[in-house]
Amino acid sequence: MLAADYRGPRRMRVSSKREPLIQHPRDAIVRVTRSCVCGSDLHLYNGLVPDTRIGMTFGHEFCGVVEEVGPEVTNLKPGDHVLVPFNIACGQCHFCKQGLFGNCHEANPQATAVGGIFGYSHTAGGYDGGQAEYVRVPYADVGPAHIPDWMDPDDAVMLTDVVPTGYQAAEMGGIQVGDTVVVFGAGPVGIMAARCAWLFGAGRVIVIDHLDYRLDFARRYCPAEVYNFLSIDDMAVFIKKQTDSLGADVCIDAVGGDASGSPLRTLLGKKLKIEAGSAIALHWAINSVKKGGVVSIVGVYGPTGNMVPMGNVLNKGITIRANQASVKRLLPRLIEHVRAGRIDPKALITHRVPLEELPDAYHMFSAKLDDCIKPVLYPNGGR
Q1: What pLDDT does residue 245 have?
Q2: Rounded CA gap, 186 and 229, in Å?
Q3: Of the candidates 169, 200, 177, which has an alpha carbon nearest to the alpha carbon of residue 296?
Q4: Omega before residue 223 within 30° of 0, cis
Q5: What percent of the chain has pLDDT over 70?
Q6: CA nearest to 133, candidates 8, 28, 17, 41
Q7: Would you say the pTM of this structure is higher than 0.90?
Q8: 211 and 94 in one domain?
Q9: 127: domain CATH number?
Q10: Measuring CA to CA, which residue among 173, 267, 252 is closest to residue 218?
Q11: Do 299 and 354 fall within a single domain?
């Protein structure tokens, strides 16, 4: 089969690899019809996540058709079209029973924090991902969800990560009716977080980024007030001036370790890798939120440390909430939001690319070319 083949930082290929096999009675083999390149994949692509090994197949956002199931998988059958959450979760451990499917204790036995994730380095379990023609899905009796007959598969693939992550970012913010919400990052997740903030009753939504085409997209899609941080001298002062000198009620870091905006953070976190990526968006969130406010973090950082202003967190009485999205927990309500027209996931897709052109998709997305918001790959001709 054809599959993504990581060859080192900023070097991706499409290679011929062996098709996956059933390895456990709870496995399924899925023929991929759509897979995405995620902003989180760019952390891998740029060499910011430790133990990202040569030859790995990336891709944690995909949907497809079930080809084969193990003997203990009774909820799926060959021919079912399913969306597969990016979390690999057993459904039976202490954390899965709490709905913390992103923290499964069984899917990633080498880690004490994150659970298993498709195609996301050996720090997340070492599972090959869905930027391929076929993928092995562990715990297939738990994760995959049938795509409703009425749903466009382009919407379905966005429900594997982007929509639930953006939704959970807003949910973790504890948004109250009338709140001012500031989202740092106008990538797909940040845009979705801003859109979902309205569902929780936000009275005002502000999006911060440095790329005008992304800000224009957010202005239309969310809709939101948008500001380019290149024209802002001091982020905390700017946000306070926008909020009667108080600060935002909720700040969302939807960027993570790939953030631009600080030459020092770029040097320490992205060049020298002394820190777990550039944490400037997190600094802005902490310093821009009001006293007693909430900072919600869904941007990805590596497992090493960051210099974070904890004194400000303490002295301002800030609540910080962060996690990988628990896709399985959120899917029922998100499917209903899509059915009702409150969320339009596929509208985020700007580029549809054959799997064979995957290296070009990574380059375009990473270099922010051609006004790219979200690229989707089509293995097997999208069938």
Answers
A1: 95
A2: 12
A3: 169
A4: yes
A5: 99
A6: 17
A7: yes
A8: no
A9: 3.90.180.10
A10: 252
A11: no
Summarised one tens digit per residue, pLDDT across range 41-97 is 998 998 878 889 999 999 999 999 999 999 999 999 999 999 999 999 999 999 999
Residue 100: which domain range?
Answer: 2-161+326-382
What's the pLDDT at 111?
67
Residue 114 is predicted with a pLDDT of: 82
The two three-digit tokens of residue 281, written as one number: 């968006």
Question: At 187, phi and psi to the nearest 5?
Answer: -75, -175
Contact between 116 and 104 (Cβ < 8 Å)? yes
Query: Residue 240: which CATH number?
Result: 3.40.50.720
The arithmetic mean of pLDDT across residues 325-336, rounded, is 96
Beta strands in the chain (DSSP E): 2-8, 11-16, 28-36, 62-69, 81-84, 87-88, 116-117, 134-137, 145-146, 180-184, 204-209, 225-228, 248-253, 289-297, 319-322, 351-354, 375-378
Q: How many domains does the chain have?
A: 2
Q: DSSP letter string over 90-115?
A: -SSSTTGGGT-GGG-SSS-TT-SS--
Stretch (H or E) spanning 312: helix 310-316
CA angle 279, 283, 289 (to 5 degrees): 145
Higher pLDDT, 380 or 295: 295
What span, in angstroms and rounded, lies between the C-alpha atoms of 116 and 356?
A: 27
In this predicted structure, what is the pLDDT of residue 263? 84
C-alpha 127/C-alpha 108 separation (Å) is 9
Q: Which residue, chain included where needed, has tokens 């600080």?
A: 262
Q: For residue 3, give both structure tokens.
A: 């599959």
Please state, in angstroms and rounded to a whole number, the distance separating the CA atoms of residues 23 and 21.
6
Backbone angles phi, psi at 62, to 5 degrees: -160, 155
